[in-house]
Amino acid sequence: MPKKRKGFIKPFFKRGFLFLEIIVLLPLLILLLTNQVIRLSVEDHLFDSIDKIPYNRVALVLGTSHRVKNGGPNPYFHHRMQAAADLYHNHKVSYLLLSGDNSTPYYNEPGQMRQALLALGVPAEAIYKDHAGLRTLDSVLRAQKVFGQDSITIVSQKFHNQRAIYIAKHHGIQATAYNAADTPRHRNDRTRVREWFAKANVFWDILINKQPLELDEAITIG
Q: Cα–Cα distance between 164 and 145 in angstroms, integer?
């Protein structure tokens, strides 16, 4: 009897360990695979050079807070604004659509973006604001559904542009992206980790056909 009991327990624990390995490794595999699919499929749409990026009538500038938690300036924000201004001043776009979170009167990403771009010499008549860019998906789809743009240049950091371009491509938007300057890796580890999960979440949004939280009446740019 003891021998039979031992022979039963050993396979049981083997199956248990195999099950635990699957539970741990499968999500990691999915995370890796989804990130690689996005990165590899959009590479040809990303530009670091202002001279090489093609002209688009409208640039979609993706929002973020102009300050970090400790109150200091957010380098992601300022690099994006500089990149957007460079596109405009080099005649690579004619209009800038600033899309960000303005869900409360006390938090206004598009308003801060507009102020920064005016200070960089972009004229007010070239700037449009989208106050309901609560997520990257909302910003990209509202550019098409609300502002009527089927061809855009997206402005953000490269890791963010990859995701935005993939969303745009899936929804039939012709998009290129201009990569704003990044920050040193040791300063943005938390942001990088979040981005891995955000890229994986893109496929869930596609699966359930996720749409923007808000859709307003059509707004004409220009």
A: 16
8 A C-beta contact, residue 188 and residue 157 = no
Q: What is the pTM of this model?
A: 0.87
What interhelical angle do 2-42 and 189-207 show, nearest 10? Answer: 90
* Beta bridge partners of residue 30, listed in sequence order: none
**Cβ neighbours of residue 70 closer than 8 Å, sequence gap 6 or more:** none
**Cα 204 versus chain centre, distance:** 15
- Look at residue 1 and tell me whether its pLDDT is greater than 50: no
Q: Helix 136-145 crosses helix 189-207 at what angle (to 10 degrees)?
A: 50
Q: N- to C-terminal Cα distance for the chain?
A: 85
What are the tens digits of pLDDT across the range 50-61? Answer: 999 999 999 999
Domains and CATH numbers, the chain: 41-207 (3.40.50)
Let me know: does 113 contact 63? Beta carbons within 8 Å: yes
